Structure formats: C-alpha cells, structure tokens
Amino acid sequence: MTRSLLPGNWGSVLVTEKNLFLEIYNRLNDFFGPQDWWPGETPLEVVVGAVLTQNTNWSNVCKAIENLKQSGLLFFEALLALPAADLAWQIRPSGYYTVKAGRLKNLLVMIEEKYQGELGLLLHDEMTTARANLLSVRGIGPETADSILLYGGNHPVFVVDAYTHRIFSRHNLLAEESDYDSIQEQFMGFLPADSALFNQYHALIVRLGKDFCKKNNPLCENCPLKGVEEG
C-alpha cells in the first residue's frame, strides 16, 4: 500500500496497488508546481477561449479575447447579437476565424434556446445533460465540451487532448489507436473524481508536452517522467 499525495483539500489518497496515473501526476506536480489553469476572468471568457483555442496556441486566443474586451463585446447578449462576420473580424488572431465565429455563434444560440440565454444554467446543469447539449452544437467536439464543463462549470470530467495521447502512449499506458472516449474512461477510472485534480493534471500534461514530450525531438533524457514505468 502506498500513499499518493494530491493537491487541493483531500489530504492524501491511499492506493492499494501501483497506480501509474497517480504516480505520473505526483511527479509532474512536484516538478512543475501549480499551473493555475484555465486563465479566464469570467465563465464566459473561459467558454469563448475553449472554442477559440481549437487549432491554435493560447497566445493567439488571448489576443482575440482582448479584442472582444476592448470592443466591449465580451458579454453574452453582445456576442449573440453580433453578426457572424463582425465576430470573425474580432477574433481573427485566433486563426480559422470564420469557422470559429460560426461555432461560437452556434453555441450561443444553443444556450439562448435551451437555457434562456443564461450561461450559468448550462454550467450548473447535470453534467451528462449539459455535455449532450454541448455536443449537439455543430463544431463543438468532446475536448471543447469537456473544457467548458471542467474549467467553466467545475464539473469532474477529464479533458483529453493530443498531448495526453502522445505522452501516455509513449509510456505504453495507452494504445496508439485509443480514441477520446476510451482515454477519458481510463483516466477517470484510475483517478479520484475531483475537478481540481482533473484541472491541474490536464494543465501539467500540456506543460510536459510543450516543454519535454514534443512531437519531434522529445527531450527524454531530462524528462520528469523518465523511468516512471520502473519507478
């Protein structure tokens, strides 16, 4: 029996058998420390960022969000009323801005129709219902939906991305052909269902993917997960 230390207010978690998912978390958490993710001043900003971050880096998302702020448009009613072409112009730093404007408008319309235009009603809805409604929106896939639920609504759902697949398949914890749902199921099966843990873990995975476990020329020799399978 080992004791894995986790952040937050749970104290420690007793693990009755070797759990590499927790061991990896602890290694990354000790190495990188708190990541304070997701950056966003309001739930709406988190939701907008979750859509805009598709296929781009966060610095470009910040530029697009700053455009909306400077124009006084980062409010639900303002974004809903804004013509798609004007919204696309505002978010152009995020790339694929015409497509993303359409996706964001689709999301806003769903919230207007199913939640009376109240974002809080979506974020505080029962998780499976909210997730189904998000996935019904054209252009909103599982990663974006789960980012909205976790970071905007504090729901205990694990967000999977390309870094997750890359890192954990390289450590032989995931099959190369694993899809989003099977990866998420594996993480949530090995971890306590806690949104703060899922938040920090995903942020740590992103940090590791950017700094060490790169797509090309990974820095394996100095990686904090070196030898984790044998540790």
Tell me what the structure shows.
The chain has 231 residues and is mostly helical. It folds into 2 domains: 87 residues, Endonuclease Iii, domain 2 (Orthogonal Bundle), CATH 1.10.1670; 110 residues, Orthogonal Bundle (Endonuclease III, domain 1), CATH 1.10.340. It is 56% helix and 3% strand. It contains 12 helices and 2 strands. It has a two-stranded antiparallel ribbon. A hairpin with a 6-residue loop joins strand 1 and strand 2. The protein is globular. The protein starts with a strand and ends in a 20-residue tail after the last helix.
* Cα end-to-end separation: 15 Å
> What is the CATH fold-level name of the largest domain?
Endonuclease III, domain 1
How does the major sheet shape up? 2 strands, antiparallel
Query: What's the structural domain tally?
Result: 2
Keywords:
mainly alpha; Endonuclease Iii, domain 2; Endonuclease III, domain 1
Report a brief summary of the structure.
The chain is mainly α.
Question: How would the blueprint of this fold be written?
Answer:
Blueprint: E1 2-5, E2 12-15, H1 20-32, H2 43-52, H3 58-70, H4 76-81, H5 84-90, H6 97-115, H7 119-123, H8 127-135, H9 142-152, H10 162-170, H11 180-190, H12 195-211
Antiparallel strand pairs: 1-2
Helix pairs in contact: 1-12, 2-3, 2-9, 5-6, 8-9, 10-12
